[in-house]
Specification:
It contains 12 helices and 17 strands. With about 400 residues, it is α/β, with parallel strands linked by helices. It has a 7-stranded mixed β-sheet with strand order 4-12-11-10-7-5-6, sandwiched between helices. The protein has a 4-stranded mixed β-sheet with strand order 1-2-3-15. It has a 4-stranded antiparallel β-sheet with strand order 13-14-17-16. A hairpin with a 5-residue loop joins strand 8 (about 190-195) and strand 9.
Length: about 400
């Protein structure tokens, strides 16, 4: 099918819930994507941070193909090697105690919320279930994770939302202390607010939050759906903040393009969820787990160091342009936000698409870059030249 035919088929048969850019994709290689007509695009989006090791990665393809030839899915009533090995790798490289596997980020955050409330119920009883999250946060699109999300634009249509959430301003420890009442069981934060505009939290604030939570036996929940799996230059962003979370969620880049998410718990929280309290049909799927093992294998220390270097290269290149439309450059590693002055991020992103660059927006003012972690400097340079033309 050509691009026109694909778009027509979508319009006729698919719920129109996405504001898609005017582009259809057929295949990819490295950090490049191609339309059915062969037009090339440099990808600074990686499927919203999902295709962590790029397109056509042979070792990854070989890993999932070999597993598909063995068994594609098993009920979680049985044991299998891929998910067990994957959990071992994650705990070994993070210092967390154990893992629960799910399908995607919203579901992972739901599991994290359930764990926090059960921990508090088991220890303190029914009336300690409120979770504090931050203004400008984003935690998912289920009814409960929308309630956890600290953006008013998402709080409409789907009433009633799940009760038990409060939102405080980021980087304001006084505001958090004021809301840490006796009914609070957890504080849930993104270390870099992705959908909110690629806004990093202040390290001193994060440490203060961790200390406050520990003193009050309030769980510290870190949403690493977007920041995890090497995106910021370490396997998980919390490893750069000098904290030890109680629970961490992950998804997006973990399986290199296949659906997978999950949560990791520390020793204190490792036995909270027991048989009958949480489950999912596809969690720990063998093919996704095989893909995730290969992703982790490729994201060694040298590869993670390169993520940091590539992020610095992007920031330094953009600063050298001295463009009046460029505001603040935010983020870590290959999670970069570029605020716009007197320009619409969506208009810039749409113009870039027409000229061969796929780039995202975030919040009200920013372009967002989440390229594959394996992107080459040549691909980065080509994409940045396209961006430069439209700034």
């Amino acid at each position: 099918m050509n691009s026109t035919e694909i778009k027509a088929l979508d319009a006729q048969n698919v719920m129109q819930t996405y504001g898609r850019f005017d582009v259809a994709i057929e295949r990819g290689e490295g950090a490049k994507l191609y339309s059915p007509e062969g037009k090339e695009y440099i990808d600074f989006s990686s499927g919203l941070g999902v295709n962590s090791i790029g397109y056509g990665n042979k070792k990854w393809v070989d890993a999932i193909t070999a597993q598909a030839m063995k068994v594609q899915h098993l009920s979680n009533l049985y044991y299998s090697e891929p998910y067990a090995r994957l959990a071992s790798e994650l705990t070994k490289r993070t210092g967390m105690k154990n893992v629960f596997f799910s399908n995607a980020g919203g579901e992972a955050n739901e599991g994290m919320i359930k764990l926090a409330r059960k921990y508090s119920f088991d220890k303190y009883g029914k009336n300690r279930s409120t979770i504090i999250s931050l203004v400008q946060s984003f935690h998912g699109r289920t009814i409960t994770t929308l309630a956890a999300t600290g953006q008013d634009v998402f709080h409409n249509y789907f009433f009633p939302f799940t009760e038990g959430f409060k939102h405080v301003a980021a980087n304001d420890i006084t505001a958090l202390k004021a809301e840490l009442t006796m009914d609070v069981c957890a504080v849930m934060i993104e270390l870099i607010q992705g959908e909110g505009g690629v806004i990093p939290l202040c390290p001193d604030y994060v440490k203060a939050v961790a200390e406050l939570c520990a003193a009050k036996d309030v769980l510290l929940l870190i949403d690493e759906v977007q920041t995890g799996i090497g995106r910021t230059g370490s396997l998980f962003a919390f490893q750069q903040f000098g904290i030890s979370p109680d629970v961490v969620s992950f998804a997006k880049g973990i399986a290199g393009g296949l659906p997978m998410g999950g949560i990791m718990a520390n020793e204190k929280c490792s036995t909270v969820l027991v048989p009958g309290t949480h489950a999912t049909t596809f969690g720990g799927n063998p093919i996704s787990a095989a893909g995730a093992l290969e992703v982790l294998n490729q994201l060694d220390d040298a590869a993670l160091a390169e993520v940091t270097k590539k992020g610095a290269y992007i920031a330094e290149t953009i600063k050298s342009w001295n463009k009046p439309t460029v505001g603040e450059i935010r983020g870590k590693g290959l999670m970069i936000g570029l605020s716009m002055k007197n320009a619409s991020p969506k208009d810039v992103a749409s113009a870039c698409v027409q000229n061969g660059l796929l780039i995202l927006t975030a919040g009200s003012d920013a372009l967002r870059m989440l390229p594959p972690l394996t992107i080459t400097y040549e691909e980065l340079g080509k994409g940045l030249e396209i961006l430069k033309e439209h700034l």
